[in-house]
Prior knowledge:
mainly alpha; Mitochondrial carrier fold; 0% strand; repeat; Mitochondrial_Carrier; MCP_transmembrane; Mitochondrial ornithine carrier protein
Amino acid sequence: MPNDKSVFSNSLHEILLGSVSGACGKVVEFPFDTIKVRLQYSQSLPQPLFTSTFDAIRKTYHNEGIARGFYKGLRVPMMGASMEVSCLFFSYRLAQDLVKLSKGKALTDELKVSEKLICGAFSGICTSFILTPIELVKCKFQVENLKNLSNPNFVSKTIPQITRELYKSQGIRGLWRGHLATMIRECGGSMTWFGNYEFVIHYFANGEKNYKPKVHELMVAGACAGIGYHCTLFPADTVKSILQTNDGGNLTFMKVVKHIYRTKGIFGFYSGIGVTLFKSIPTSSIMFISYEKLKEWLEF
Length: 300
């Protein structure tokens, strides 16, 4: 029983720490994410709205300003990020503890890198079920203004309105549109995210047990984690964004894949990769710094 209580206690700690670190990361990430989603949506149109990342940034600022353009709808995604990251850390820690218990190890023992990679993949799959409806509504909200730029009297829909319309037209299943692409991205991405982070911290620790990384080491590890996450399965993210921003209900995963390859080639799957990698460095760094320092401060 003590082990069970420890597993439960560890899991609750991860939910708290993940919630705070996720919200901190989202504040930094959101404007970059808005541009990424808009670029991905733009390339799905017969006539793309933007010629490059800088063109998307310039037009967003010129047409909508900072608050209405780059930070449009931040509040709900920030709450969603808290749920997402807390689930990510919670399931990652839980998977590790269960593996240790199944092998008769103490919860303080270290797992092999290969075992941690599997735990990371598991956490990504778990998180995808929470993340899909959050990202679906977020993506639709981020491109809402683009659909009516020529109409000066246009009033964009609110997040509750978008959610109600989705539920009304497609039912509860409609809120999980693009789930396959999200799950593929999260499975491989989370495995790399945690894997890169653990590898870099292990390198800095140089074999020292209970090593407490310095801030600059957490920044490096977090940056490597973020870059690895987005580089691994970015094409799946592109497919997901197009599926979730498209208003029609007849698109499928494979239809989007074929459309992108036929119209844009292999590079079409990497639309927005530049701004995504640029955002991933500070975002992931801040998330891990927040997580580790809060954990150290609370002495979990």
